[in-house]
Amino acid sequence: MDAASLAQFERLCTEFYNPPNEQAQRHAHEVLTPLLNGIDSVPQLQYVLANSSNQQALVFASTALTKVATANWTAVTEQQREDMKNFMLNYLFQNCEALQNSAPYAVSFLVRFLCRIVKLSWLEGPQHQTIVSDVQKFLSASTRHWILGLDIYVQLTADIQPTVGPGMSRFRRTALSFRDIALPQIFTTAVDILTQMYEGKLRIDDKMDEFKLVKKVLQLAYNCLSFDFMGTIPDETSEDQTTVMVPHNWTVLKDNIIPKLFFQLYDSSCKNGWKDCAIYCLQCLVLLSSLRRSFFQNEEEKTALLQSMMEGTAHLISNKVGLSDPQCLHETCRLIGRINTSSQFKELKQVPSFEMWLEQVYGFTIDAIKNWQILPNSKHYLLQFWAQLVMPIMNDKDKTPGFHTKLEDYIYTITVSYIDSRLFLADMAARGEDSMDDEGFEDALQDEVLRGEQLDVIAQLARLNYQKTAQHVLELFGGCTSEANVNEHKLAWLVYIMGALVGGNTGSTSSMRAQQQQQPSGSQPLHVINGEIAGRVFSLMNQTDANTNLPPESKDPTNLETLELSYLYFMEQFRKVYIGEHARQLSASAPPSALSRGDVSMASSENPSRVVQERVCTVLGLKDEDAILGILIKKIVTNLQHRYTLEAVLKRTLAYFYELAAGVNIVHSVDKMSPHLIISGKLLLKNDTVRHLMANHASSTLGFLHAGPKYGRYRTQYYATLGKLLFMECRDGSTSTTALETFNTFMMPQYQVLEQLWQAANTGDGSALRSEQLRLPLIGLCRDLRGICQACVSHDMYTILFNWLVDNPKQPQNCKITVFSAALNFYWDDPEVTTPLLKFVAEFVYNKAQRINFDQNSPNGILLFREASKILVAYSQRMLQREQSQPVYKDIYREKYKGIGCVLELFSNALHGNYTNFGVFELYNDNSLSMSLSLALKLCMSIPIADLMSYLKCLKPFFMFLELATRNHAKLVCEVAESAEHLAGLIRALEEGLTSFDSSVCMQCCASIDNLCTFFYDIAHTGVGSSVGGGTAATAEDVARVTQGLLVPGGPVDAELRRVLNLMLQLIMAGEFNSTWSISRPILALILMYKDTYTQAQELIVRQQPTEDRQQYVGKCFSELMVGVTDSLQTKNRDHFTRNMYHFAQAVRSTS
User: Fold this and answer.
1) 3-class DSSP state for residue 496?
2) Of 570, 952, 1002, 1129, which is most buried by a Cβ count within 10 Å?
3) Residue limits of the Importin N-terminal domain (predicted)?
4) Do residues 690 and 778 both lie within one domain?
5) Are residues 637 and 587 in the same domain?
6) Tally of domains within the chain
7) For the segment 718-776, what is each residue's pLDDT rounded down to a tens digit?
8) How far apart are CA 540 and CA 547, in angstroms?
9) More confident residue, 186 or 998
C-alpha cells in the first residue's frame, strides 16, 4: 500500500462510518469487506496503523485485524504472532499522545486488538505471557501513558474472561492460567494506585486526566474482583452467584483500609461530579462484601470487614452522599443487600455497630418505599434485606428483648408501608397520571415477573407479624370494597397480597409451629386467619361472577382481566393450604392401605391433629371440605363459560384446573405414621360440580369450546385435564366393562363428531369433508383427542382409546381412524387443520412409558404404523407437489415448516415405537414403509440448510427422523435417495447440525453419520451377504449401488463424508464437542473408510501447531490414538477406540 492507496482507504473509511449518502456507504462496504476475509490482508492493515492518523481508518483497521486474527489464528505463524504483539505495543507507546489528541475514539479498538493477540497466544508458552512487564513501561512514563497502560489492563481482564460459545473450553483454560500468572500482579497495581490516591500522594494537575486515571483504575479493580476465578461462566443477569472466589494469596483484601479507600473515593467522586467513578466504587464494595467465607482465617477478620462496611454505608445513607443519582442509589441498595446475604445473622449481631447500622438502613428503606420514583429493582434489594432477616429472627434462641422487639417493629412497619405503597401506585395507575410515564414506571400488575418478586417479599416479611399484617390488609380490603367507585387496580393488588399472605405461611410442621409461636399471645391460629382472608376473597369473587359481563363502572376489559388473574393467583395459593390441610385430615384416620391407593373415602371426618383446632371450612361457614373445593371448581367453570374472551384468564384457569387434577401431595399428618401420597384428582372426582362438568364437558355453555380456532389450542389442555380425571375414574371401576362404559359415555360428544366426519368421508369421493360446517368440528376433534391421548399414561387406558378409534381391526379400511387420512386429502393446504391433526396422530403413535404394548398375535402394531404411513403419504405427496411449483409463502413457518416438523415427528414416533415388525412389509410386498421413508426423505431434502438452522425449534424432528431412518433402514434410505447428490445434501445437513449449540441435535447427527458409515463400510468390505441392519443381508444390487454409485471416489457423497471427518477432528482438537463417546463412533468408521483423508488431516493439524514441541506432542497423540485399533466396526473395537479418543481429547485439550 502506497500513499495514494492510503488516502483512498481513509476516504472509504470516512464514507463508511460517516456516509454522505447511502450509495457511498454501500460502495465503501463493498470495497472494504474483502479485507476481512483472510490473513493476507494483515500487512495492509498494519501499514494503515503505522501511517494514518485518520480516526475512521484506525477504527476499521484495528477492528479488521481483530476479526481476521480471531478467525484465522491457526494460520498465523509463531513469528507473526510475536511481531504483531510487539508492533502494537510499540505503536501504542510511541503514538500515545497523538492518538489521545487526534483519534481518542480509536484507542479502545487498538487496545482491543492487542488484548486479543495476548488472549489467543497465552497458552502457547511463557514467551507470550509477558504482558505485565510489557505494560510496566507505560505505567512508568507520562500520565497519558499511565492511563493507556491501565486501559490495556482493563480491556485484557475483560476480554480474557471465558464466555459461552465457540472455543469456550480453550478460553476457559486461558482464563484460569491468566488468573494464576498475571491477575495478582495486575490487581496489586490497581490497589497500589488507589492507596496512593487515598493517602494523597498522587497529584495530577489536569482535572480531565485525573478523572480518566481514576475511572480506569477503578474499572480495573472492578474487573479483577469480578473475575471468573473458578471458570464457571456465571449468568451475569442473575444475582444468584453472590460469592467472590478470590484466591487465598490476595491477602491485601484483608486490610481494613481497602473498604475505607473505596468509600473515600466514592465521596470525592460525588463531590467532583464523577458519576462513573462513584458507581465503580460502589460496585467494588459490593464485590468486597461478597468475599467467600473461607477466605478469612478467623471470625475477627470477617467482623472487621463487616464493621468497615457498616460504618461506610451508614455514613453514606445518613448524609445522602450521591443518592440523588438513580444508579448510585441502586448500587447502594445492592451493597446493603449483599452485606446481609453474604453473612449470617449471628455474624452481623457480633459487629459493634450493627444496631446503629440497622437503624440507618431502616430509615433509608422507609424513605425509599415512600418515594415511588425509585425503581422497583432498587427497592427489591432493601426489601430482600429485611425479608431475609425474618427466619433468623424467628429461630434465634438468644433473643435480646429490646433489640428483637425493635427489629420486629421495623419489619412490621416496612411491611405495611410497602403494602400501602402498592395501593398508592394502583391509584396513580388507575388515574393514568403522566408523571408515571415520564419516570418510566412499570406497573407490576402487568409484569408477572416483577409482581411475583414483590409478592414473594411481602409473604416473607409478613411471617414475623402475620396476624397484625393480615388485619391491616383486611382493613384496607374492607375500605376498598366499600368505596362508591371501586378501583379494580387496588382490589387486584389486595387480592394478590392476600394470596401471598396465605401461600407464604405454608411449609413444614416445624416452620408453621415456629411462625405460630412468633405471634403475640392470644393470637388466632393461622388457619383461622387464612379462613377469614379466604372468605373475603371468595365473597368478592362471587360478586364479580354474578355479573358475567364487564362491570358497569369499568369500560376497559384489562381491568377485569387483572382482577380475574388476581383471583386465580389467590386460588393457587389457597390450594397449597387447602389441599394439603384436607389431605392431612383424611390421612389422620384413614388406614395406610387406603391412602397408598388414593382411597380417601375411608377417611374419618374427624381431625385428631393437635395443631389444627378448627377447620378452614368452619371459619368460612361452609358445610364441609368438599364445599371449599366446590368454590374453586365453580370459579373454574365460570371462567370457562364467561371469561374465555380474556385469553390470559382462560390460559391460567386451565393450568390451574390441571394442577388440581394432577397434583400429588406427600402427607405427614401423624408423627409416627410413614408419609402417604394423596392424589388431589381423587378429591375432585367426589365433588358434585366436577361430576356435572364431566357429564357435560362439551356443553354449549362452555364458550371457549365454540368460539372458533382462536381458542382451539386450549381445548387440548382442557381435555388433557378431563382425561386424567376420566382415567382415574376408569381405574377405580370394579370391572373392565364398567371402565369401558364410563369411557364411552364420556366420549359420546366426540363420537358424534367422528361419526359425522366418517359419514362425509364415505359419501361419494369424500369431498363433503371439505365444508365449513365440518372444518371446525374436525379441528376441535383433533385437539380434543390429542388432550385425551396425552392423559393415557398406561397400557390399559391407551388400549381403550385405541379400540375406540380402531373399532374394526379386521377391516382396517372401515375403522374410524381412517377419517384423518381422508381429511388430509382435502385439507392438506390448510395449516389450521393440518397442524392439530398431525399433532394428534403424532401423540397417538407415541409410545411414551411403553403404553403401546400389543399382544404377540395382534396385528394392531402394523395397523397403527400403516395408518401413520397413510397420513404421512397423504400430506407429503401434496406438499412436495406444491414445492415443485415454487410457491410464494406468506408465512413459510406456518404454511410449510411447522407442518413438516409435525409430520416428521409423527413418523419418528412411529419408527421408534417398537410395536411394529418392519420386516413384514418387505416380506409381503407392502410398500407402506418404503413409500413413507421416501416421502419423508424428500421432505427433508426440500428444506434449504439455512432454513433448517433458522427454524431449528420446529424442525428438530428432522434430525431425530434421520437418526431413526439410518439406524435400521439405511438400505432403504440409500434406495429411495434418487441420486448421490440428494444423499450428499442430507449429509451436508448433518454436518451443519454437528456445530449446533443444541446438544441433542449434535448427538443425533453423530448417530446418523455413524449409521450411514457403518452401512457403507459393511457393504464395501464384506460384500454380498453382509448384514445391513434389521437382520437382512446385502444383495449384489446393494453392493453395486454403494460401491459403484454412492461412494464413487470424488463423488458428492464421498466428498461430503471426507469433509465431515475433517470437521469432527477439528471439533475434537478445539474441545468443542462434549460427548467423546458420541463423536468417536462415526470418527472410527470414517477413518477406516478414508485412511488417506485421515492421514492428510492429521498432518495438517500437526503443522498448524504454533511450536515445534507442540507439533511433536500432537503427532505423538495421533499415533497413540490408533494403538490397538483394528480394521473392524465390532463393538469391542469401537469401545477400545472410544477409550483412546477420550485420552486423546484430554491430552490435546490440557496443553492447548
Assistant:
1) helix
2) 570
3) 28-94
4) no
5) yes
6) 3
7) 999 999 999 999 887 667 788 899 999 999 999 999 999 999 999 888 888 999 899 99
8) 12
9) 186
Distances (CA, A) of 951 to 881, 941, 1095: 22, 15, 37
Task: Find out whether 633 and 690 touch, Cβ atoms under 8 Å.
Answer: yes
Which element (helix H / strand E) includes 677? Answer: strand 676-679
Give phi and psi for 523, each to the nearest 5.
-70, 155
1 in any annotated domain: no
β-pairing, 664-667 vs 676-679, is antiparallel
pLDDT-wise least confident of 6-20, 267-281, 573-587: 573-587
366, 413 Cβ separation under 8 angstroms? yes
Measured distance CA(947)–CA(626) in Å, rounded: 54
What the block records as the C-alpha cell of 1150 is: 490440557
Residues in contact with 388: Cβ distance below 8 Å, sequence separation at least 6, in sequence order: 340, 341, 460
All residues at 6 or more sequence positions from 787 whose CB lies less than 8 Å from its CB, including other chains: 715, 716, 717, 718, 719, 720, 721, 722, 723
Return the residue matching grid coordinates 481497602. 258
3-state secondary structure of 103: coil
179, part of any domain: no
Domain closes at, from 942, 967, 988 = 942
What is the distance between the alpha carbons of residues 525 and 619, in angstroms, rounded to a whole number? 11
* Domain region containing 624: 478-695
One domain, residues 711 and 673: no
Same domain, yes or no, for 562 and 498? yes
- Given 908, 942, 976, the domain boundary residue is 942
Distance CA 422, CA 416 (A): 10
Residues 644 and 716 in one domain: no
* The three three-digit cell numbers of residue 215, written as one number: 475511572
679: β partners:
664
d(CA 1006, CA 1068): 13
Are 748 and 779 members of one domain? yes
Among residues 145, 134, 135, the alpha carbon closest in space to that of 204 is found at 145
Residue for grid cell 498448524: 1104
Picking from 833, 825, 820, the residue whose alpha carbon sits closest to that of residue 875 is 825
> Nearest to residue 910, comparing CAs of 882, 944, 873?
873
Helix or strand or coil: residue 666? Answer: strand
Per residue in 398-448, pLDDT (tens digit) is: 777 788 889 999 999 999 999 999 998 888 877 776 555 555 566 788 889
What's the grid cell of residue 1077? 463417546
What percent of the residues of the chain are helix, what percent strand, and what percent coil, each to the nearest 5?
75, 0, 25
Q: Are 674 and 748 part of one and the same domain?
A: no
Are the CB atoms for 388 and 345 separated by under 8 Å?
no
> Cβ of 301: how many Cβ atoms within 10 Å?
15
Fill in the DSSP letter of residue 244: B
Which grid coordinates are listed for 205? 494537575
CA–CA gap between residue 469 and residue 413 (Å, rounded): 9
Following CA atoms 817, 819, 821, 824 in sequence, which dihedral angle do they give, to the nearest 10 degrees?
-140
Beta strands in 14-75 (DSSP E): none
State which H helix or E strand residue 694 sits in: helix 688-695
* CA distance to 410, 488, 492, 595, per residue, from 500 (Å): 20, 18, 12, 30
Cell reading at 568: 386465580
Q: Is the dihedral of CA 72, 73, 77, 82 positive or negative?
A: positive
Are residue 712 and residue 842 in the same domain, yes or no? yes
Nearest to 579 by CA among 652, 506, 508: 506
Does residue 349 lie within any of the structural domains? Answer: no
Tell me if residue 342 falls in helix, strand or coil: coil
Phi, psi of 47 (to 5 degrees): -60, -40
Return the closest-CA partner of residue 85 out of 63, 115, 64. 115
**Averaged pLDDT, 319-335:** 94
**φ, ψ at 677 (rounded to 5°):** -95, 130
Distances (CA, A) of 396 to 389, 404, 514, 570: 10, 10, 11, 31
d(CA 934, CA 930): 6
Rounded Cα distance, 705 and 697, in Å? 10
